[in-house]
Write a structure and sequence with these properties.
Strand content: under 5%
Shape: extended
Number of domains: 1
Number of helices: 3
Distance between the termini: 49 Å
Structural class: mainly alpha
Number of strands: 0
Radius of gyration: 21 Å
Length: 91
């Protein structure tokens, strides 16, 4: 079944759908990141009495951070600094 809409309209509609999906996915990623940060904050405030789930998440974050080589962290810091400086100059 062929569409009666011109191709440029169909392309624009598809791009709009992709943009909306991208927005939803980024919102989901931000919510997940904020959830992990909140759990880490709870662990820092409550310590060992924070519960099994919170302690487990904190331990996993520490393991993940410990597995990253120092060279990677230095490289990431340099890239973030460059991005920050470029973004500040663009304003």
């Amino acid at each position: 079944m062929a569409s009666t809409l011109p191709p440029n309209v169909l392309g624009r509609v598809m791009l709009d759908h992709l943009q909306k999906a991208k927005q939803y996915l980024w919102a989901f990623v931000e919510i997940g990141f904020l959830a992990v940060l909140s759990i880490i904050l709870l662990y820092l405030i409550l310590g060992a009495n924070s519960g099994v789930f919170v302690s487990g998440v904190a331990q996993n974050v520490v393991k993940f951070a410990g597995a990253i080589p120092q060279q990677t962290l230095v490289g990431l810091a340099i890239v973030l600094a460059i991005v920050f400086l470029i973004a500040r100059r663009m304003r």
